[in-house]
């Protein structure tokens, strides 16, 4: 997959190990700006570790990571994380209201979120403003995930990393979140990189897809390649998705 100067994130021969376990091996590739790229592969392939590298939470032992053609190490960490948001499967909330959770990113910067902006964020994730002062304990799983996504949008990130955000939801809620992410991508031109174990989701939502196995990128391209992969390992992995 070649994206040239349109890459928002570029990795070049990136390696990462933890306690002598080689988790990522010579990762090279690009994520195109303004597009939705899905990451698929078996558990333990290194997908979440790759996200942590792109977000600056950990650093590679070797190789370079560029964000908008600038070395990731040249960014101030808090600036980097404001520009590269991260939403997780767990949708972790602090105790209190939806508003207090939406306010958290700005509170950490000694700033305040006004209610009108908070209501707009809720509209962005297809929740009515009546949720604003509701206790997060009273939210469904799908509603919590929407609030989690809205919270990542507070800083208007250029890139949104989504780690299995629908895996614990029912099918209707999954479809709701999928439609929401596509809407955010179109409205804000946000680059979306989405880890999913759901191959149908990768096909329906992703414009591009990476397949990772054992810490390596095995095959990449427009998501439709999943119907007819070149690599035999990928063929075995996706076997049955079109049957």
CATH structural fold name: Rossmann fold
The general outline is globular
**pLDDT < 50 stretches:** none
Output the radius of gyration: 18 Å
Q: State the fourth-level CATH superfamily.
A: P-loop containing nucleotide triphosphate hydrolases
N→C terminal distance:
26 Å
By CATH, the architecture is named 3-Layer(aba) Sandwich
Structure characterization notes:
The protein is α/β, with parallel strands linked by helices. It has one domain (4-238): P-loop containing nucleotide triphosphate hydrolases (Rossmann fold). The chain has eight helices and ten strands. The chain has helices at 47-54, 77-83, 98-107, 115-124, 141-152, 171-188, 199-205, 232-238, and strands at residues 7-18, 21-32, 36-40, 62-67, 70-71, 84-88, 159-163, 191-195, 208-213, 216-222. The strands form two sheets. Strands 6-7-8-3-9-10 form a six-stranded mixed beta sheet, with helices on both faces. The protein has a four-stranded antiparallel beta sheet with strand order 2-1-4-5, with helices on one face. β9 and β10 (216-222) form a beta hairpin. α5 (141-152) runs parallel beside α6. The longest helix is centred in the last third of the chain and has 18 residues, at 171-188. The radius of gyration is 18 Å and the shape is globular.
Summarize the structure.
The protein has 243 residues and is of the alpha/beta class. 33% of the residues lie in helices and 27% in strands. The protein is built from eight helices and ten strands.
Provide tags for this entry.
243 residues, alpha/beta, Rossmann fold, four-stranded antiparallel β-sheet, 27% strand
